[in-house]
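Deliverable D2.4 — example input (structure tokens):
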């Protein structure tokens, strides 16, 4: 015998099982838009902030207005901070055509992937 009463050992084991049962085995990865500059004026800088899992690797791309399957700009990948926040910034070219542009943010972390799609208006 270890000197620890059996009832205490069993109680600790039960408490540990209860604590583990309340913890999700695999938290889902999500990408949520926190803020976005829209509309953004041509020739100025726009910003996009998303929240995801801490340390997730994220990338953002802007698609063509007329051909959403065609990427016209890929922003450099970013790593989410400890709060799961990622900020993307881009200067909109002065020659950009006014209108709504589809933007996709994709993140990967802990073996999972998720994406968010939004529209940014250029004036």
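Example output (designed residues):
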């Amino acid at each position: 015998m270890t000197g620890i009463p059996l009832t205490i050992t069993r109680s600790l084991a039960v408490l540990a099982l209860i604590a583990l049962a309340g913890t999700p085995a695999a938290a889902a990865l999500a990408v949520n838009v926190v803020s976005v500059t829209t509309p953004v004026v041509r020739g100025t800088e726009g910003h996009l902030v998303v929240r995801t899992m801490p340390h997730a690797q994220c990338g953002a791309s802007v698609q063509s207005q007329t051909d959403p399957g065609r990427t016209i700009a890929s922003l450099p990948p970013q790593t989410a901070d400890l709060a799961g926040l990622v900020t993307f910034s881009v200067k909109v070219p002065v020659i950009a055509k006014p209108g709504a542009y589809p933007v996709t943010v994709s993140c990967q972390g802990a073996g999972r992937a998720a994406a968010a799609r939004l529209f940014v208006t250029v004036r």
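Helices lie at 6-21.
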